[in-house]
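Q: How would the structure tokens look for this protein?
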Amino acid sequence: MFAELKKIAQLAEEAANKLGLGVVVSIVDVHGNAALMHRMDKAPMHSLEMAFRKAYTAATFNVATEDLTAKVQPNAPLFGLAVNSGSKLIAFGGGAPFIVSSGERFGIGISGGTTEEDIDIMRDAISAFNKK
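A: Here is the predicted structure in token form.
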């Protein structure tokens, strides 16, 4: 399993390199435990926390984090989600669930680019991982 987690992190790094970015790749299990943290050179320091929160949200909610963005706005059903979760959850794009060969689900979080870049890197990594 760890080899698969390292592989998806490698795929994310390759996607980030194509964009000239340094990012953090965080992988979290469904219980919210960190399984892997990978920080590329030149990744912004704040990206360590942001990538973990994206992975945590994706793993525990089984949802792509950008799908939550509209739901956490004022007057929306999940308004206040991040604050009321002790700041563990986040609705910024760049996180999504994925499944390894054993059937276990994990969440991956990418941070270091714009939201759109983080989403693109995350999608590219998951897509390439699923083609293995």
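Residues 2-130 form a domain with the Beta-Lactamase fold (CATH 3.30.450.150).

The mean pLDDT is 94.

Upvote if useful.
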